[in-house]
Amino acid sequence: MSLHANIKRLLSDSVIYGLSGVFTRFISVFLTPIYTRIYTPEDYGVIGILTNGYILLSILLVFSMDAATARWYFDTESKEQRKRVINTWIWFYLIFSLAVGVLLFVTAGFWQQQFLPESPDSILFIRLISLNLPLVVWSTVAINILRFELKAKKSVFLSLSQSLLLIFFNILFVVLLRMGLQGIYWAQLAGSLLVVPLSLFFIKEWVGYPKLFSKDLFPGMLKFAFPLMPATIGYWVINLSGVFFINEFLPQEKVGLYQIGISVASVSGLATTAFQQAWSPFAFSILNQPNAKQVFAFSLKVYVLLVGLFCMLIAVFAFEALVILTTEAYYGAALVASILTFNSFLMGLSTISGLGATVAKKTFPLGMINLVSAILLIGFNFALIPVLGIEGAALAVCFSQLIIPCYMFWKSHQYYAIPFPFLNSIFLVLLMVGTVTLSYLFKQENVWFNFVLKSGLVIFALVLMGWMNKTEVSRFFELVKKSRLVA
Questions:
Q1: Is 129 helix (H, G, I), strand (E, B) or coil?
Q2: Which of 303, 316, 396, 478 has the maximum number of C-beta atoms within 10 A of its C-beta?
Q3: 395 touches 380 (CB < 8 A)
Q4: DSSP class of 363
Q5: Cβ distance 155 to 141 under 8 Å?
Q6: Going by C-beta distance under 8 Å and a sequence separation of 6 or more, which residues neighbour residue 456?
Q7: What is the CB neighbour count within 10 angstroms for residue 319?
Q8: What is the residue extent of each domain of the chain?
Q9: CA 409 to CA 421: how far, in whole Å?
Q10: What's the pLDDT tens digit per position in 372-424?
Q11: Torsion angle defined by CA atoms of residues 398, 403, 405 and 408, in that order, rounded to the nearest 10 degrees
């Protein structure tokens, strides 16, 4: 398959997964104006702690077996063997989730004392989360299986169904029934419960009895996944643990502002998550093609140009987004949102940088560097938060995240050398960061003048980026033109 055809397929899948991300992120964007008009920044602090704690549990329960399942799935063309691979993950994941859910339900009081205000409702929040853990197993597995099968549209449909159900129940429990903070967690539980039968419908031909759990495959898959656990835990520490450090150093309302910053920055995940979801199945499926390395190298430029531009726009106009979505009490989250937007960009970059190690089934370096990054983050948090506040927490995240792609590009090159265009990519990233920095340095009191100034900076950056990458831009439009002719 030609370079154009491969890049077209990567972009096509990214767009489809991006649509899924649009609706997933739409939950955050849609609910933010509702939440910020019902809940105080202190309430948002509680939401932030519970949300990020739940994400940590989800990461631990998956245990990186999704990555192992993907790698083993593409090692064979036999559907029967692939079914054994998938069921090995399903039954491990389900039993693990049930056990942790029961433990969390029983020990809810302990966790409430450690992290939340003393209230019977806080214990209820934790118990509702514990009930949700085994339910999300089925949607998580189903979405991954549909990705493995390259059925992007069905994967998007399932994600969209989850999103719409969550929005519906949030409006019902939070807005109409006025159930307070607990309404959020009843909404999550109800949405997860209803999406289970839909998930099972999509993967009914894959799910078998526990006897399909393979004792032969499991040790190898676990050996592949285990070194990734420091990476996944490190991912959480780097990207989401900030609320816990802020909770220790600053008033709880600052936790709420930081969480709002995360919500605005997560819009940049529309592009980064779409690319990440499309990348692994795409990369593994073309691995044996003669021009695979050329495609991978060109993919980095596509990522930096398109995804980087999207992230830059979110970062530049973060304050305007807060004005539209929230009340004045939350405007202080603008700079945090801008900084964390670039963290989303770096996360996607890490996906590309780890390709060589993944191809070689060498997962230890990725796990190790994520662990190192997480340790550095802890140090950065202690150093920066007392001095710079919530912006210090955001900078700590970006500084620690940056070392992951830098190291993994170097390490992966030893396993599977790819001629990535590093120098050009570095210049582009510096240009984007500089544009966002200037938008804050030249900030004016007049909202409309400020908007015009920012727009001018963005246009200047776009022109300079286009001039620096005339060949790539030309090839991109040629690809678009060919795509239209084929259609």
A1: helix
A2: 396
A3: yes
A4: -
A5: no
A6: none
A7: 23
A8: 1-26+226-487, 65-218
A9: 11
A10: 888 898 899 999 999 999 999 999 999 998 999 999 889 888 888 888 888 88
A11: -160
